[in-house]
Design a protein that fits this description.
By secondary structure, the protein is of the alpha/beta class.
Length: 362
């Protein structure tokens, strides 16, 4: 088969969907040596010399991911190439497609927490093509239920395949490496780590209010730039001297940051999966997460759960995890075991099986 995969969201700064696509592609190509894969990329694609397989070729498109020219060029490419299967790992659908295609929809936060233009895009562009897709992939049962409800889909049309944790996330015995990463990012002393962005559903405002009540021996480290609205929130909470903004963090530094952190906190109002929580667990870092959306499904009994709408409950949970040595050790051991259940090898096998299932429609 000739299988096309849209990789135009992959760039130098890797976000969740980009990492999902790269890890899935590597996993599938390590298993499948028979079918031909064509990855659609842009000039900013950074892995062309690193991901080399005999049955993988690259097709560079001029249109950037989410641009005015994108639909027209994608239409031309799909019509010309006649892929047996086309997979869009993001929320961008193909506007022309006669053969089977599948989309991965990671969550439905865009419908709830995005601006009017994004909500209209979902309603008038995404929804019709979701109906046309042969199969929808998603990453949790929670997201599946939301997708089926939002798009009025039969449950059989939506397949849940969990994300995996990359092998590079694990315990690091060489403390000198950890210290170098802390120094590179100017992180002093003991700290709590959170990974995310400034979107409302990440709930950073509430976390900052809660952190004011957390043990003052600890700093809060965020992978954001310390400017704009988030800076004003920190100043307003009176914790400017205890919050460190380290900006974009290269993927290679993340395992050391997880290993160095005293706790990892993710108090989102909504998560489609919550991969950073599993990455932290794999690195032996105790995790505090919301008791909502996909997080209980993904984290199981290996996390300390808090109410994301309750400032006092968040603060209490963080303080307990920081101060109770028996609790910390229990979370660390359960976290290591839990994270080991989620692998990209397993995810890739399941996606490849789905490709094979779709061949009957070719």
């Amino acid at each position: 088969m000739k299988i096309g995969i849209d990789g135009r969201m992959i760039g130098e700064k890797m976000h969740g969907i980009a990492r999902y696509t790269v890890n899935l592609l590597k996993g599938i190509l390590n298993i499948d040596k028979t079918n031909q894969y064509i990855l659609l990329i842009t000039e900013k694609y950074p892995y062309k010399d690193d991901i080399l397989f005999d049955n993988l070729s690259y097709m560079c498109m001029k249109s950037q991911f989410i641009s005015l020219s994108e639909p027209f060029e994608l239409y031309t490419v799909l019509k010309r190439e006649r892929f047996d299967i086309f997979h869009s790992p993001s929320f961008i659908p193909p506007f022309y497609r006669k053969g089977p295609f599948l989309m991965t929809i990671h969550d439905m936060s865009h419908l709830v927490y995005s601006g009017l233009s994004r909500r209209l895009y979902y309603k008038f562009i995404i929804k019709p093509y979701v109906k046309k897709a042969r199969r929808i992939l998603t990453v949790s049962e929670f997201s599946k239920s939301e997708i089926c409800r939002a798009f009025s889909l039969e449950e059989e049309k939506v397949s849940v395949i969990y994300n995996g944790v990359e092998d590079r996330f694990g315990l690091i015995s060489e403390k000198v490496h950890i210290q170098k990463v802390k120094e590179r990012h100017n992180i002093p002393g003991k700290f709590i780590l959170t990974i995310g962005n400034e979107k409302d559903h990440k709930n950073l405002k509430t976390l900052l209010k809660a952190f004011k009540k957390v043990d003052r021996d600890y700093f809060l480290v965020l992978n954001l730039e310390g400017k704009g609205l988030i800076e004003r929130e920190v100043r307003g909470a009176g914790i400017k001297e205890r919050v460190y903004f380290i900006g974009y963090v290269d993927d290679s530094d993340m395992p050391c940051l997880y290993n160095a952190a005293s706790a990892f906190v993710l108090v989102s109002l909504k998560e489609g999966f919550g991969l950073p929580a599993l990455e932290a667990m794999a690195c032996g870092c105790p995790v505090v997460v919301s008791d909502t959306s996909s997080l209980p499904e993904v984290c199981g009994d290996a996390a300390f759960y808090v109410d994301p709408g309750d400032v006092d409950d968040i603060a209490k949970g963080i303080n307990e995890v920081l101060g109770d040595l028996e609790l910390r050790d229990n979370l660390i051991q359960k976290g290591l075991k839990r994270a080991s259940l989620f692998t990209w090898e397993k995810a890739s096998k399941e996606v490849l099986n789905l490709y094979m299932e779709l061949t009957k429609y070719c």
